[in-house]
Amino acid sequence: MTSPLTLFCSFYPVLAVTFVSLVHSETFCRLQNHFEPAFMAQGDFLLGGIFPLHYNQEMPDLNSTYRPPPVNFDPRAFRWALTMILTVDEINQNKELLPNHTLGYKIFDSCAYPLTGQRAALAVLNGVTEEGHGVCSGASPLLAIIGESGSAQSIVVSRILRPFRIPMISYFSSCACFTDRQKYPTFFRVIPNDDYQVKALAQLLVHFNWTWVGLIRGDHEYGRFAVQGLLRELQGTKVCVGDKYFQSFKNSIDALCIYLCHIILSGLVIRTSQAKVVVVFSAEGEMTPFLRDYMEQNITGIQWVASEAWVTASVFSGSVYYPYLGGTIGFGIKTGYIPGLGDFIQRVTPYVYPSNPLMQELWEALYGCAPVSPSDSDLPLCSGDETLLEKHAAYMNTSSPRVAYNVYKAVYAVAHSLHNLFLCQPGAGPFENNSCAQSTNIHPWQLQQYLQEVQFTINGEEVNFDLKGDSIPYYDIINWQRGASGNIEFVPVGLFDGTKAAGQELVIKEDRIVWAGHQMSVCSDSCAPGSRKAVRRGELVCCFDCVPCDSGKISNETDSIECRECPEDFWSNSDRTACIPKEVEFLAYDTVGIVLTVISVVGACLTIAVLVIFFYHRNTPIIRMNNSELSFFILLSLTLCFLCCLVFIGEPTAWSCMLRHTVFSITFSLCISCILGKTLVVLAAFTATRPGNNLMKWLGPKQQRAIIFISTLVQVVICVAWLIDAPPHPFRNMEYERSKIILECSNGSSLAFWCVLGYIGLQAGLCFLLAFLARNLPGNFNEAKVITFSILIFCAVWLAFIPAYISSPGNYADAVESFAILASSFGLLLCLFVPKCYIILLKPEKNTKQHLIGKDKK
């Protein structure tokens, strides 16, 4: 034999109740089917209670022909029902609250299933007994209902109560869908709205940097609305829900568990997914078979994040669950203190209530034995020495009730509302014409008016409802840890206070948390500074590759979305983590600069030495016959040519840039003008021997000076015009090499620059032409040959300089120009003066007039 409740919960209840019948022309209420309450007590005002005292692991098929196996008794829900009984008795004994009035109750079992909850709601509406209620007239004896636990059941019950305008206060239905006051106008609850829970869960995932999580939910309103809210809260964060699994519970839950364990968890954890954190929105009854098959797969190491529906379920507190569920973290509803609950539960035994079949089921669930004989079960008779079964050991622990405390507050909310209704003063009521309710004929909708405005304090906690029927949001953060006895203990490790300012709601004591083994759950490892995230095509944003930043760009944060470009004067370091000042390059006094400086100084010293030699031997024939004055001018100008190379070395400034090309061009123009003058003198001297040719009178010292002055003056005019119109200036070249700043001198006017070089080339070309024409004139020392060769070298150097200069940037261009200056200067010095020095110093016997004109005796 099975108990009536167990037998009922085993059958499909869809056609169980017919509430109102119309027979002939008479209207009367008749109970068409019996659905016995679990507990019932008489009172002036009736409260209904609906609790999931049983739950089924398998739901029946829709054809109503399948009979499922016996249901399971839930001691946890039974404790909630006892809490309601205790609270009603406590209020009835309170002389200050509802004096001269008593509350009654009628508690039914919903079997944790919506259709059974529907029948429980209809049964509680039928009245306390069948007698005495033949005609439906006057106010309903039922003022309010305390229930239901699951959101799916509460939706069904609330819709049934809506036409009757009977308020319903839920102690465990947290679905956000109930905030719709048009659909659920009579719904209240003392548990926070799931919008706050999903907000807290989102903050928890972000806090621990779990960017890749799995998600499992049941196919009911609680799961659907919770998932929608969580996904909404996670928008704009770094958290991705990579694996979402939804499953209908119409079919066998065993099949569901096999599907989830083999498909979801194997794929989610073992094979390809890197999600080590799984968020579960599920009820306690749904989790039981799921975890059974999960444990059979021997999968460990998952960091479970539990919803408030099962995070404090005592059925999972046994030591057998710890290897698989240890470290679970989640949000539990607020605890409270219920005076006398522990003693009251201790007194509720089958021996005190022998006629209540639930007592026998409770004892069988707690101790695994039958309290009385004969028993409907096959369990042995209790001896009195049994201990609580491990899976229900927490049933007797009433030190910090959570859901039971919500039941306690819900009953008190009805009592305080009813008490406030009785305190109404005529003419100051909330109803039409400021009227009050009739104390002898109170309608449920009148009580709802006071429920909406009720505000009271219980155990130091303020209880009230907002316009949507929600209560103050508050959660404890629960962590599943191994206790001293090996069982799982639900340890508070923080809290979430929804009344605090944004960003301050979550408080976590991380040092007290015990983890399941994985504190990180990511699809891709974080990108270190110096790289950026590149989202993989077709995948969520949490799955990405780390791409090093390009040159000139940096990222100094972990998981940067993009690399930031360095300012113009900065460049990225080798790690691409910081911008450092760009390296500044110019022709400095480093290796190249020092070499050029030494060569320049040596060239100038050699030129001065030659000048000293020439000055000392100025009266010798070789110097006098080759126009000593022009030779001194050439040596002085060559000295300046060597020294002007120093202006090209060092950091460019406005003055150095203007001096570089102007000094160089004027000194070289002076030098070439002197050589040109000497060439003209040589050519005129040798042609003057012809009869009738008196060309030398036009090339005297004054004329020679005039030629040099005028030739040089042209170059000076070009340079002055250049400096006035567009002078050379310092320039920061960042285009040639982006990682460096090359300091160079901009020409200002390219036309002027090439005019300067062109004029020098014109002078050199004219000089070469005249010297070439005089190369075959008689004499042992024909200086025209020397001038021809020296100018040839000069032109070759500068012709090679032009392409090298154009293709060389910055300091390399300055080095090329300096090298050209030195090479051409050395070419002129060596070709023009070394042969004369050789004769002066080493062959003095050839330093005679006869030898030089070729008339000495052989």
TrEMBL record:
Membrane topology: Multi-pass membrane protein
Residue span, G-protein coupled receptors family 3 profile domain: 592-856
The organism's place on the tree of life at top rank: Eukaryota
Residues in the signal sequence: 1-16
Localization terms from the record: Cell membrane
Listed CDD domains: 7tmC_V2R_pheromone
Transmembrane segments: 592-616, 628-650, 662-686, 706-724, 751-774, 786-806, 818-841
MF GO annotations: G protein-coupled receptor activity
Annotated family: Belongs to the G-protein coupled receptor 3 family.
Main localization category: membrane
Keyword Glycoprotein attached: yes
Protein name per Swiss-Prot or TrEMBL: G-protein coupled receptors family 3 profile domain-containing protein
GO CC annotations, alphabetized: plasma membrane
Keywords: Cell membrane, G-protein coupled receptor, Glycoprotein, Membrane, Receptor, Signal, Transducer, Transmembrane, Transmembrane helix
Any Pfam family the entry gives: ANF_receptor
